[in-house]
Amino acid sequence: MKATTIALGALLALSTCSQNKVPTGQLNEAASLPTSFDFSKLGLRVLTSSVNRQQATMGTLYGNDLARQAALGGISAAQPGEVLALVTWRQQADPNWFGARIPGALQSLELLRTAPGSAGRLAVTYQ
Questions:
Q1: How far apart are CA 42 and CA 53, in angstroms?
Q2: What's the domain of life for this entry (predicted)?
Q3: From the CA atom positions of the chain, what is the Rg in Å?
Q4: pLDDT at residue 11 in the model
């Protein structure tokens, strides 16, 4: 009996995990990032997010593992190999939740990379 219950629970969990499709009309197309911006290739994860009510924007700061470790460790100087991306959207009303605000049109995508430079200095690239 117990084994049957566990097997049914596992089957239910697997069947719900395989349904990753977003219902029609529920995907926020306006907030989508360009396909050329590949999170998995850059190894980015969310570091923090912000909301600016005066400018009606919201942003998310992403970083690779090196940038994340520097932030968590309180390291104030940048290290070679860090990648940071700041994505900012205009806010829009959430059509599914009264009073809520969600990302709207993409406003900006800023990318900062650090690499070893000449004479022991750090080379910083900003896009």
A1: 30
A2: Bacteria
A3: 20
A4: 44
Residue 11: how many CA atoms within 13 Å on its side-chain side?
6
CA distance 87 to 104: 12
Which DSSP string do the residues of 112-126 spell out, in sequence order?
A: EEEEE-GGGPEEEEE
> Would you state the pLDDT for residue 59?
96
- Say which residues have a Cβ less than 8 Å from residue 98's Cβ, sequence separation at least 6: none
Per-residue model confidence as pLDDT tens digits over 40-70: 788 999 999 999 999 999 999 999 999 999 8
Kindly state the helix (H) or strand (E) to which residue 111 belongs, with its residue range.
strand 101-116
Give pLDDT tens digits for 28-47. Answer: 888 888 888 887 788 999 99
Q: Which two tokens stand for residue 61?
A: 């700061």
